[in-house]
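Predicting holo structure, iron/sulfur cluster bound.
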Amino acid sequence: MQWDRDAEEAIKKVPFFVRNRVRRRVEEEAGKGSSDRVTLAHVHACRERFMNRMEEEVQGFGLDRCFGQGGCPNRAAPEGDLTGRLEPILREAKLRDFLKTRVQGPLKLHHEFRVSVSDCPNACSRPQIADVGFLGARRPRIGSAPCDQCGACERTCRENALVLPENGEPVAFDPEKCLACGQCLKVCPSGTLEEAQCGYRIQVGGRLGRHPRLARELPGIFSQDRAVRVLSSILDFYKHRNQKGERLADLIDRVGWEIFLEEIGR
Ligand code: SF4
Ligand code: SF4
Ligand code: SF4
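Done. Tokens:
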């Protein structure tokens, strides 16, 4: 749908963590009036609704994604639509109904359980501040094909995880520094660098608000199937342990990281 320039400017002022949702709502608003373009009046009408009837807008969860599937060249995630598989799980968890049984007073957007999917470590959808964040990951290993000593991998790696020794030795790989962006795999002409793993890194317990914090990472790289199962396990933990509608970060603090890992089967 076409957006007027002033409507576009107005939507940019909406906090980023609800911007996509408000954008969809604004387009619905315009569609209801059979308009084929979005005007500033549609944005204002929607903003009023969010300000004055916020509880009706709370759906219990937020799910964001980056633009990786739109053809971003940095994409490191495996083929397939992880977000499309996560959404029904979040819907089936009936988180809005659940939160109503836990939160005292009206539901607000900050009570929602937030999930974010980024298709590479650049993390454009900010998975580090979501309750559960997924980051597409492709990790290399040194294979048996002879190295051309071209240095392309060393020049490409922004983490200095690949170093080509000057004495003609094979390239050295430091997995501790590697963020699994997969870029080195694209430039190696000899096939010396092979794909060791492709999937998702998973981070948990990020949040904004009065006590912001960055998420912690679960160990390992997860296939898409396993990533889906991990979200289900975390939702079970969240619903089982939640007393007052706390965010996942607070639950993990109360219960302890090790018990959290144990209860989600890690
Ligand atoms: S997170 Fe990575 S894949 Fe997704 S849009 Fe950003 S750069 Fe592209
Ligand atoms: S995957 Fe990315 S971070 Fe890891 S070695 Fe390759 S270029 Fe460096
Ligand atoms: S890009 Fe491949 S061939 Fe070139 S130095 Fe690195 S490992 Fe060797």
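Residues 66-68, 72, 74-75, 118-120, 122-124 surround iron/sulfur cluster (ligand 1) (CB under 6 Å).
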